[in-house]
Amino acid sequence: MKKCMLFFLLFICVSLSATVQAKSGHNQAADPEITSLTPLIDYSESGFTKKVIFRGKEYMILLFAFKQGQQLTPHTIPIDAFVHVLEGTATVIIDGKEYTVQAGHKIVLPKDLPHGLTAYEDFKMLLVK
């Protein structure tokens, strides 16, 4: 009987401790923010738009939106970049070679190689660099 009572008291103490920690916020992981990305950036008739949505220690994540026909002129960057297409279709040119990408596709833009883009239709992408 004493062992049962001891286990019961131990259970109560652990339960109360967990309740106090939960109410005080200690030892609780922050709830992740769940967000749809496409509504976070709007199209512009005057040119493509871009928006930084996250900055890490050594990288950043950006959203881009291009109206049909808008372009990103060829340029180079000193690091590799990862692109995930969120909506639409575009031609990506890397070092003179054309690639057609559409919603759901990913493409890597290698560092120091010229790359550009032309939107076939309204086009949104996420870029990590």
Overall description:
The chain is an alpha+beta fold and 129 residues long. It has one domain (38-128): Jelly Rolls. 18% of the residues lie in helices and 41% in strands. It has one helix spanning 2-24, and strands at 49-55, 60-66, 71-75, 81-87, 89-94, 97-102, 106-109, 115-119, 123-128. It has a five-stranded antiparallel sheet, with no helix packed on it. Strands 3-8-5-6 form a four-stranded antiparallel sheet, with no helix packed on it. The longest helix has 23 residues, at 2-24. The protein is globular, with a radius of gyration of 25 Å. The N and C termini lie far apart (64 Å).
Q: Identify the strand order in the major beta sheet.
A: 1-2-9-4-7
Cα(first) to Cα(last) distance is 64 Å
CATH class, anyone?
Mainly Beta
Bulk shape: globular
CATH structural architecture: Sandwich
| Superfamily (CATH H level) name | Jelly Rolls
Q: What is the averaged pLDDT score?
A: 85
Q: Please write the string of helix (H) and strand (E) elements.
A: HEEEEEEEEE
What's the helical proportion of residues?
Answer: 10-25%
Poorly predicted sequence stretches spanning 5 or more consecutive residues:
1-26
Oligomer: single chain
- The CATH topology assignment is Jelly Rolls
For the secondary structure, the number of strands is 9
Return Rg in Å: 25 Å
- What is the total domain count? 1
Instruction: Profile the largest sheet.
Output: 5 strands, antiparallel
Strand content: 35-45%
